[in-house]
Design goal:
The protein is of the alpha/beta class. Helix content is about 40%, strand content about 15%. Helix 5 packs across helix 6 and helix 7 runs parallel beside helix 8. It has one domain: TIM Barrel (Alpha-Beta Barrel), CATH 3.20.20.370. It contains 8 helices and 8 strands, in the order H-E-H-E-H-H-E-H-E-H-E-E-H-E-H-E. Strand 4, helix 6 and strand 5 form a beta-alpha-beta unit.
Length: about 220
């Protein structure tokens, strides 16, 4: 449970991060990490369209550079976009400067592409999720001072785990989703085989439970 739904003491490490939204509202916030990539992101987009759901995509800057057409598709379909560093770097080693520089590099390329697609959209590009869900305190404090909103999760589905099946991923959603949950999936190579089954089944179950879906 410490992994799928972080324990309270883990949430204290980053006290101003967003872990869960309003617990009084029957709303779910779907998020996807690590894209965009051609093997996974188009399937995720088509599935979300099928259910008329908007989500938040935390993108790796280098993937945006390599796959601008897929990035453009995410943006044109009206999803919210966040920063997941340029190289998906871990946040427990290296200097704060290197980490911030990598984050800002991702921000610059995302902003550059986003402006060509949504020239009149002034929504701030200030959502940040650290790869692996960890970073050192200096990194965390500096990013907050720079105006980034640090987004963690209330439920990580572990769709990336080779030890889990698609049914296990769905079971994690059924067991841990609750009002205001920020749910993390991954549009990645490690997740896509499970996502093809687990994502639509999870969405259908959440709809049956009466949840609405919003972006961060």
């Amino acid at each position: 449970m410490i992994i799928e739904q972080p324990a309270r003491f883990l949430r204290w490490i980053y006290p101003h991060a967003w872990w869960r939204m309003d617990s009084s509202s029957k709303v779910i916030y779907l998020t996807f990490d690590d894209g965009p990539i051609p093997e996974a992101t188009p399937f995720v987009l088509d599935t979300l369209d099928r259910y008329n759901i908007k989500a938040t995509f935390f993108m790796v800057g280098d993937n945006v550079r390599k796959h601008p057409d897929i990035f453009a598709d995410v943006a044109r379909r009206g999803h919210r976009i966040g920063n997941h560093t340029f190289n998906h770097i871990g946040g427990v080693r290296g200097s704060a400067k290197d980490y911030i520089d990598n984050t800002e590099k991702a921000n610059a390329i995302i902003q550059q592409h986003l402006k060509t697609i949504r020239p009149n959209d002034n929504t701030p590009l200030n959502l940040f999720r650290p790869p692996h869900g960890w970073m050192l305190s200096p990194h965390y404090r500096t990013l907050r001072r720079m105006g980034y909103k640090i987004i963690m999760w209330d439920l990580v589905t572990r769709d990336y785990s080779r030890r889990l099946t698609a049914d296990d991923v769905v079971d994690n959603v059924k067991q841990y989703a609750r009002n205001g949950s920020i749910i993390t999936f991954h549009d990645s190579l490690r997740s896509i085989d499970k996502l093809r089954t687990a994502l639509p089944e999870s969405i259908e179950w959440l709809i049956q439970q009466g949840f609405e879906f919003k972006t961060l």
